[in-house]
Structure formats: C-alpha cells, structure tokens
Amino acid sequence: MNMKGQETRDFQSEVKQLLHLMIHSLYSNKEIFLRELVSNASDAADKLRFLALSNPKLYEHDKELHVRISINKSNRSIKISDNGIGMSRQEVIDNIGTIARSGTKSFIEKINSNNYQDELIGQFGVGFYSAFIVAEKVSLRTRLAGKSLDEGVLWESNGEGNYIISDVKKFDRGTDITLYLRKEEDDFLDIWNIRRIISKYSDHIALPIEVEIKDKDSNITKWEKINKAQALWIRNKSEITNDEYNEFYKHITNDFKDPLIWSHNRVEGKQDYTSLLYIPAHAPFDMWNREHKGGIKLYVKRVFIMDNAKEFLPNYLRFVRGLIDSSDLPLNVSREILQDSRITKNLCMALSKRVLQMLETLSKNNTEKYKIFWKEFGLILKEGPAEDNSNIETIAKLLRFTSTKNNTSDETISLSDYVNRMVEGQEKIYFITADSYTAAKSSPNLEIFHKKNIEVLLLSDRIDEWMMSYLNKFNDKTFQSVSKLDNSLNKLLDKEIKEQKQIEEKLEPFVKRVKKILINRVKEVRLTHRLTNTPAMVTTDANEMTTQMAKLLSAAGKELPEVKYIFEINPNHPLVKRISDIEDENNFKDWIELLLEQSLLAECGTLEDPNKFVCRMNKLLLM
Asked: What are the beta bridge partners of residue 135?
C-alpha cells in the first residue's frame, strides 16, 4: 500500500560507492555507527539551538534537547532519536540521497558568513551511511522544526541501489533513525554494550544521551542519562585541579603512576584545536620498538575518532600520551586522510613544538624529574636530530651526556653546560663514540685532552654515532670527533707542535721503515703529539667513516668499504724509542705489527685474527 507522496529514488552514484565501502571495507570497527549517528543527532540539536535564538518558536513545546536510544529485541532493532532541527522532504533528498551537498556543511558556511563560533559536530549525510555497517534496513522518520505535523518525512532503504521516501505525520520535531540489525549483530541489542560504546566514543558530547529503561514489574519506561556531557579538556584550566589532570591521564593510559608534566592548551585562529599532552614517568616495555603503538587520541569536536593517532607527532616523540581535539578535521576522517592532510601536518608541527617546550620547562624547573625523563626516554629523544631538522636547536638543548668531567656513566651534562666550561681558545665541542662507557673513557684519543683539561663528551649508545652525524652546531660551536684528524687542536697544541719538530726530523728514517712494513695496510703513518701514555693509536681522516659508523651500518646489513686508518705513533714513549733502535728487520716488523694490532684492538674492540695477535705478543715477551 502506497503512502502519501511515496516515490522510489535512485542513490547518487557516489552514494552507492560509499555504501559499498561502508558495508564491506571502510570500517573495521562496527560499533563506529553509533558514534556517527549520535554525533549527527548532536549536530541537529546545535543547529536548532542556534536558529532558535532568532526564532524561539522553533522549540515548539520542548526546549530540553537530548539524544535517546531505545532497543526492541522482538524485531531486533535499535532506534536513535533526537529532538533537534529535523529535515524537510527536500533536505532528506539533498542530504542523504547525495554526497555533493551536506546539510551541516551548508549550515556551517551560512553561519560562518555571520562570524558565528559554532560547536557543530560531524557532517550529516556522510556519517549517516555507517548505519549500514550493522543494519540490513534503515528507516528514518523526521520533521523540520516549526513545520506542521503533516509535513513529516519517512525514508527507508536496504542500502542497495535506491531508497523510498514518503510523507508521514510526525508529532515531535527532529529525527528518529531505526536500524534493523543483521543476524550477526545481536551484541548491539545489549543495553550494557550500548552504554560501553557511548562511554567510549561520546561521553563528552555536550548533550544528554539517554537510554530507555523499562521496569520489569510496573512496565514503566524511564530515560536514563549515560554520558557525562562535558569533556575535561574543554573546561577552563583554572577550574581543573592537578588531581583531576593526573586521574584523567591514568584513565586514558591505564598507567598507575602520575605523569611527569602535562600541557593543556586551546588554540584559535588559522587552526582551531585543543590539546592535552602528558609526559609519562616510565616507559612501556615495547617503547624501544619504533613500531610501538604510540600516539595520542584523536577527537573531532569532542567526538572520539581513534586511538594511537601517530600522525600528530613525529616518531621520536612517540612516548607522549594525551589527546588532540580538532575543529578543522572531518568526523569521518581516516588514517589515510590524516597522512595526506595539510591540517594534520600543521598540527604535527605545532604539537611537536608544544612537547619540546614542555620538556624545556621540565629541564629548567625540575631537574630531578628531567633526570627521570632522560633515563626513561633519552634514547628515543636522540632520534630527534635526524627526524626533525626544524626543531634541532631545541632538541640539542634537551640532550644529555656524560663526559670526561664526570666520574659516572650517568648522562646529566647538557651542551650548554659543556660550552660554559670550554677552555680559552677552544673552538669546537669534542666527543668520542665507543661501544661502552668504559671503552670511551679509556680511549687513547683522550690523552691530550686530559693534559689540556679539555672536556670530551663520552658517547656509548648505539644510536649516538647516527645522532652526531646530524648535529652540526650548538651555539655556533661545531662538533668534532676526537677519533678523527682535525686542525682545531693545533692552536691549543702550539707548544707541543714546536717541540715535536726536532724529534720528527730525528725519527724520519724510523717512520719510513714503518711505512714500508704497513704499505697498503694503513692510509698513512705519522708521529703524533696527541699521546702521552700510549705508544700508538689509529685515527680516521676528516672525510673518512668512523669506526662506530661502520659498525652501525654493518649491523644494519650494509656492505661497506674497508676503513683505512691513519697509524699515529708517540715518539716520546719508551717502547717506541726502544723499537726505533732495533736493527733486525723481522724483530722490528713484529713490534710494529704488535703496535698496530694493539691500536686496532683499542679502537675497534676486536681483531680480524686475535690468535695471531696473541702468538706475536707471546713471542716478543719471550725474547
């Protein structure tokens, strides 16, 4: 039997494509549909509230706006109702039959022209189709506020190629959406599941969301509010206590410790968003994995969109927890859209600066808490110079090191500390990378620096060599590895260089003998004034790859050219003086080989043939 004004209309081709995606692949999380429909209902209420400012009659007989959810197990349906603005027949056709226009989008354009700061949620006409994720049939009954009771509209579809629309009588303004669920979707007929979903996705929508409760004995129906209706992050910061911030952190992270620090900010202008970001007090067990499911929660106008949204912070800040609530992103945003969105990129830049400012504040105002942060997350922050060149100066200030001025491996020294202690005439920031703190601290490369009281940073984490390749300057001071040749020391070693000239002339025949033995084995043989207690060492040229970088790339499976070392000999060492007087070429060769192997062992931590080294050493000991 046909109803008044009934007609069957085909969906726009884009709608058919969207419906197919909705039903088959777009949403992997089916419960999303309830979030979408509740958000649309909230949107309709906000529209009515705004329009009623100039036309109070739109409220008709009911000013109390709400969203109501009822379940009918007998016909396996769930109904979401609102008493918001509603729609006319033409609006239903325009806003649900097509995607090219959106009721909400048109409304926002209109009120933005009047400079109205709206609080609208969602884009009706897109999220609506998510109903077909769980429903085999959807029925929509609506009436535009202020219209007669006979101007209601009934819309029905099974989500295929067309829909039926007709005129009906509707006593209450607003929209009722009834979903007739598929057989496998019985979970959504459970009132406790509905409560859980609303709590998860829509708890902070500023509109009462109520569920229908029937008393079994009296059969009386009542409506029970199930959402809090206000988000903590939209409240005024001055009204929120530290305990509330801490409890909210624990709620969203399931952490049992209070965070070290947080930052709560509302930004308006080119971008409109609120962020609430926390720095945890300890790292989760999988934090060192760069595939760690870190990230922050994403809300769009107070509606929860997704967990672990990594797109809003670079990977080196993956320890940050919290949320961002954007007014610029669409409610139906996907991870693919986030990755390509200009808005997302701008938000990522802004949030990165916010986190780094938070860490700067912590490092200046609470050094003990910053020590906790560095111990837990320092290794991750060290990825920053390679990943975020735009903030590299700020990141450099936050880095911590141990050095030759320390008696412990604890990394507590900042680059500012180092620069403030630089000796007169020192041009560069010196550092050494090694496999361990002990190896770095005992390296023969440090001997002249100890003598001149020049501080050297000791770096022993695997990532350090990679990090230092991206750190070029700090406070206009360049970085210099002490295991590489560099002329910056010459000014500091002017006295030693002058004293060495006479010795070098005397030992020139000795150096020629060594070069003849080590030809093609080393890049160069030279006397050095940088050693005090060690007979010899190996270094690399300024343009050569360092030992630690070679190890790092080798561990990553890269094929590398052989590192050619410079063999530096200390002419003042008693052992070198003794060797230089040896006339027997075989004996001389063994001693030179031993010195080279010792130097390589000190630099690399291993030898290509350790047994040959041991045999050679034993042989010379017995002579």
From this structure: 181
**Segments forming the whole domain that contains residue 530:** 494-621
Ligand-binding annotation for 403, yes or no, is no
Q: Are residues 530 and 599 in the same domain?
A: yes
- Report the CATH number at residue 311: 3.30.230.80
Question: Known binder of ligand: residue 126?
Answer: yes
Extract the tokens encoding 343. 């808005």
Q: Is the pLDDT of residue 106 over 50?
A: no
Other C-beta atoms lying within 10 Å of the C-beta of residue 168: 17
Question: What are the distances in angstroms from CA 561 to CA 261, 284, 482, 551?
Answer: 47, 39, 22, 12
CA distance 299 to 51: 26
Backbone angles phi, psi at 8, to 5 degrees: -105, 130
Q: Beta strand 477-481 with 473-474: parallel, antiparallel or unpaired?
A: antiparallel
Q: Do 413 and 317 share a structural domain?
A: no
For residue 335, say whether it is annotated as part of any ligand binding site. yes
Tokens of 479: 């970085």
Does residue 322 sit in helix, strand or coil?
Answer: strand
Q: In this predicted structure, what is the pLDDT of residue 462?
A: 86
- Hey, which of 102-106, 284-288, 339-343, 515-519 has the most confident mean pLDDT? 515-519
User: Is residue 102 a known part of a binding site?
Assistant: yes
Q: Is the CB of residue 345 less than 8 Å from the CB of residue 384?
A: no
With vertex at residue 78, the alpha carbon angle to CA 77 and CA 81, rounded to the nearest 5 degrees, is 135
The reply, when asked if residue 103 is annotated as ligand binding, is yes
95 known ligand binder = yes
Averaged pLDDT, 324-346: 83
Residue 40 in marked binding region: yes
Q: Are residues 427 and 508 both part of a single domain?
A: no
123 assigned to a ligand binding site: yes
- Specify the number of domains making up the chain: 4
Look up residue 608 and give its two tokens. Answer: 């290509």
What is the pLDDT at residue 283?
85
CATH at 468:
3.40.50.11260
Gyration radius of the chain over CA positions: 36
Residue 36 assigned as binding residue: yes
Q: Are residues 220 and 248 in the same domain?
A: no
Distance in angstroms (rounded) separating the CA atoms of residues 132 and 127:
10
pLDDT at 126 over 90: no
Can you tell me the distance from the alpha carbon of 505 to that of 502, in angstroms, rounded to the nearest whole number? 5
Asked which of 461, 485, 509 is the last residue of a domain, the reply is: 485
Domain-embedded: residue 391: no
**Alpha carbons within 13 A on the beta-carbon side of 508:** 4
Known binding residue 479? Answer is no
Tell me: is residue 127 an annotated ligand-binding position: yes
Residue in the block written with tokens 């620090």: 261
Question: Tokens representing 239?
Answer: 């009204």
Q: Return the closest-CA partner of residue 44 out of 116, 117, 98, 102.
A: 102
The domain boundary, picked from 328, 344, 377, lies at 377
Residue 53 exposure: Cα atoms within 13 Å on the Cβ side: 8
